[in-house]
Design a protein that fits this description.
Blueprint: E1 7-10, H1 14-27, E2 33-36, H2 42-47, E3 55-58, H3 67-75, E4 84-89, H4 97-103, E5 107-110, H5 118-126, E6 131-133
Parallel strand pairs: 1-2, 1-3, 3-4, 4-5, 5-6
């Protein structure tokens, strides 16, 4: 359970970034939201953030470091051991859900994110529920 979420969203699609920022800030009223449009210098940028992020919404197909590699970097750092990791992706086939679970993602949501449904999905994830809406 994440009580005071501090979000990082990584996605190379500018429209998806604007939509996610709007949902999290205006729709859900979260104050701490960082949007990254690429994964260049990922860990340096993450570690420079204050407060420390604890919810990571990661696009799987992003450059130069994909979502799986970003997840590995975060998992290898004890500062993020109790964080929530969610795959947000447009290009995952149903058989790849097992790969996401095996990698350690806590949930997965297909893009485009549905603005009407996402707040409830995020609340479920923050409360510790498993949400897998991919395919």
């Amino acid at each position: 359970m994440i009580e005071n979420p501090v979000f990082v969203y990584v996605d190379d699609d500018p429209i998806s970034c604007r939509v996610m920022d709007m949902i999290l800030r205006r729709g859900m009223h979260y104050e701490h939201v960082t949007i990254m449009q690429d994964s260049t210098d990922f860990m340096d940028r993450i570690q420079a953030l204050s407060p420390r992020p604890n919810v990571f919404l990661l696009d799987i197909r992003v450059d130069p470091i994909d979502g799986f590699e970003m997840l590995k970097l975060l998992q290898s750092n004890p500062d993020y051991a109790k964080s929530l990791f969610v795959a947000i992706t447009a290009s995952v086939m149903s058989d790849e859900v097992d790969k996401l679970k095996d990698a350690g993602f806590d949930g997965g949501i297909s893009k485009p994110v549905k603005q009407r449904d996402f707040p409830e999905q995020m609340k479920a994830l923050l409360s510790g529920e498993s949400v897998w809406l991919i395919g």
